[in-house]
Amino acid sequence: MGLAVSDQKGKMVFPLKTIHRSPRENLFLELLNIIEQRGIEAIVLGLPLGPEGEKSLTCRQAENFMHSLGRRTALPLYTVNEAFTSMEAEEILSSRGIKRERQKESLDQAAAMIILESFLEGISHKGGGK
Predict the structure, then answer these.
(1) pTM for this one?
(2) Looking at residue 55, which CATH number applies to its domain?
(3) Is 2 helix (H, G, I), strand (E, B) or coil?
(4) Count of domains forming the chain
(5) Does residue 130 sit within a domain?
(6) Residue-number span of the structural domain to which 107 is assigned
(7) Chain CA centroid to CA 61, Å
(8) CA 39 to CA 75: how far, in whole Å?
(9) Which of 53, 49, 45, 48 is nearest to 76 (CA)?
(10) Looking at residue 51, what DSSP letter applies?
């Protein structure tokens, strides 16, 4: 799971880290620690919708994860369709000369950045703030 954060103004996005699959409770503990340490104000999650907006098994699993996280934090949770973000992230990393075999660690973080940028761009087009 790739993590990314924005600056205070929601103008710039930075990769944070990749959390590798671990027992689910450990994953939530690590996320909650990051949220507290960094003063996170809202959480944006990628939702893997199909090309026609349909919900696959993976999408339902992501929604279950979101609901579980929502029970553990009072922060607002938002979703963004993450369809094709991994492919887009792979293209970006390749264009920067990062060989495919070395992309795994950065790929999830790059996809998280694309998801967060998409969310922030949507807010700015609606005239909202951070």
Answers:
(1) 0.81
(2) 3.30.420.140
(3) strand
(4) 1
(5) no
(6) 2-125
(7) 15
(8) 11
(9) 45
(10) T
State yes or no: pLDDT of 31 exceeds 50: yes
- What pLDDT, on a 0 to 100 scale, did the predictor assign at position 56? 81
DSSP 101: G
How many Cα atoms are found within 13 Å in the side-chain-facing hemisphere of 119?
25
What is the identity of the amino acid at 125? Answer: H
Among 87, 89, 84, CA closest to 110:
89
Using the Cα atoms of residue 79, residue 82, residue 86 and residue 89 in order, give the sign of their dihedral: negative
- Rounded to an integer, what distance in angstroms lies between the CA atom of residue 115 and that of residue 81? 8
- Per this entry, what is the length of the chain? 130
Distance of alpha carbon 22 from alpha carbon 19, whole angstroms = 8
Residue found under tokens 């970006």 = 92
- pLDDT beyond 90 at 32: yes
- The crossing angle, in degrees rounded to 10, of helices 104-125 and 85-95 is 110
Range list of H helices, the chain: 24-38, 57-70, 85-95, 104-125
Tokens matching residue 77: 């949770």
Give dist(CA 63, CA 90) in Å, integer. 24
Report pLDDT digits (tens) over 8-17. 888 999 999 9
